[in-house]
Design brief:
With 301 residues, the chain is mostly beta strands. The chain contains one helix and 24 strands. It has a 24-stranded mixed beta sheet that branches. The chain is elongated.
């Protein structure tokens, strides 16, 4: 007869193995939280280039005085039970002329009979005018104050928030929302799984979302310097534009209806899912797509 899955192994038979594990060099059973900080500042020119690379951290960006960039890294490690020994993250800060770089890499951690709670936060203080490139594997990125320049933000699993960013903007989130307000300039967005909510004055928009609600508001003063494309594969899409924006409309909702709340001179309406026409006499192409969800085009003013 096969043994029952409910058969119990006597505790005394596990004790030698547990004792051997606990006796491993550097094994941690419990202890006080480990807290560590790194802080370094750099003198730069009028328009520095700032890189931040992190595999697992919450990144917050603040603006400060011109000619000055500062990195602050805060790490805490609290654990209970049998875990791998405490290890600090690898932090590297470098400067090459007006280009400064911060690299943060988490140590390998495991817990066999316990819990490990680690927290890693990066604060970046930089001039309001700069080029900013942030890459985070697992962690949110927040731009607290307006930054103007070439801005690229990428997260594998984390939310992106931008307040007042201006210039050439690129946001990419594999799994997490992309949210921004008072933006100004050209915008490129990729979002794998999460809602997108952005507003501002735009010259160009290219947005593609895999799964999530998309809401984009182009405020008064927006002009189409080039074609715009806004698309979500699964979720409702709402786009608001100024009433005086000139565009050629190409809208399609795969499994949903199209609602437009401003005048459109229809050149072709194939069915309730596809509409083509001119807005204010036409202009660059305004391409709107949703695979599954209602598509709404409305005025922003």
């Amino acid at each position: 007869m096969w043994p029952s899955w409910r058969s119990r192994v006597p505790l005394r038979s596990l004790l030698p193995g547990l004792a051997a594990l606990i006796a491993l060099p550097g094994a941690a059973l419990a202890g006080e939280p480990t807290v560590r900080s790194w802080d370094q500042s750099f003198t730069v020119g009028e328009h520095p280039r700032v890189h931040v690379n992190s595999d697992d951290a919450r990144v917050v960006v603040h603006t400060g005085a011109s000619g000055h960039v500062e990195f602050q890294v805060h790490y805490s490690d609290h654990r209970w039970g049998f875990t791998s020994p405490p290890r600090e993250p690898h932090v590297n800060m470098t400067q090459n002329g007006d280009e400064v770089t911060l690299s943060v890499k988490q140590p390998t951690i495991f817990a066999l009979f316990g819990v490990v709670d680690t927290r890693l936060e990066v604060n970046v203080i930089l001039p309001a005018t700069c080029d900013l490139l942030i890459s985070s594997g697992d962690g949110s990125v927040t731009l607290e104050q307006p930054v103007e320049g070439h801005v690229e933000i990428s997260t594998g699993d984390g939310r992106i928030v931008a307040h007042g960013t201006r210039g050439d903007m690129s946001f990419h989130s594999g799994d997490g929302a992309v949210v921004g307000d008072s933006l100004d300039g050209t915008l490129a967005v990729r979002c794998g799984d999460g809602h997108v909510q952005l507003s501002g004055r735009f010259d160009r928009i290219e947005e593609k979302s895999g799964d999530g609600r998309v809401e984009i508001t182009a405020e008064k003063g927006s002009r189409m310097r080039d074609d715009w494309s806004i698309e979500t594969s699964d979720g409702p899409l709402t786009v608001r534009i100024p009433q005086d924006l000139q565009a050629e409309l190409d809208a399609h909702a795969g499994d949903g209806v199209i609602r437009f709340q401003l005048p459109v001179s229809l050149s072709e309406q194939l069915d309730r899912h596809t509409i083509r026409g001119l807005i204010n006499g036409g202009g660059p192409l305004l391409r709107l797509r949703t695979g599954d969800g209602t598509l709404t085009l409305a005025a922003s003013d």
